[in-house]
Design brief:
- It holds the Pfam family Flg_bb_rod.
- This protein is α+β, with helices and mostly antiparallel strands and 140 residues long.
- Helix content is 48%, strand content 19%.
- It has one domain.
- Strands 1-2 form a two-stranded antiparallel sheet.
- Helix 1 runs antiparallel to helix 3.
- It is elongated, with a radius of gyration of 22 Å.
- The chain starts with a helix and ends with a helix.
Length: 140
């Protein structure tokens, strides 16, 4: 596997983790937003990742795969429905709808995404160091 392929794989992983962090930020920002009806209520979003097979034959193809973000989908979990007749957004029955965002799960996911991003930054740093070492071999 070439340094270029390693960099492409790490770069695609960093892009995927950036999308993941953006969806987490959106979910956390809207975690407490209220709505008077179910249709207008914010729903938690999650990115869908897939491995994009490397082009090549034999060992080159098995060596690694890039990450591709297929889509960002809305969660199908039930919304929180709370009886708050005094709330300005309450419907006729006094119900207010809140997003299906689990803040604890989102924070855990954020830590995981951050660690994955940092790991790929480290991979790129190691590739750069290896390339520089190769260049120094020719100096002697």
């Amino acid at each position: 596997m070439s340094f270029k392929q390693i960099s492409q794989i790490a770069g695609s992983a960093m892009s995927a983790q950036t999308v993941r962090m953006n969806t987490i930020a959106s979910n956390l920002a809207n975690a407490q937003s209220a709505s008077g009806n179910e249709a207008d209520t914010y729903r938690a979003r999650k990115p869908v990742f897939a491995a994009l097979a490397a082009s090549g034959q034999g060992e080159q193809q098995l060596a690694g795969s890039r990450v591709q973000v297929l889509d960002v989908v809305e969660s199908s979990e039930a919304l929180r429905k709370v009886y708050e007749p005094g709330h300005p957004l309450a419907n006729a029955e006094g119900m207010v709808f809140y997003p299906n965002v689990n803040s604890v799960a989102e924070m855990t996911d954020m830590l995981s995404a951050s660690r994955a991003f940092e790991s790929n930054v480290e991979v790129l740093g190691r590739v750069k160091s290896m390339q520089q070492s190769l260049l120094r071999l020719g100096e002697g």
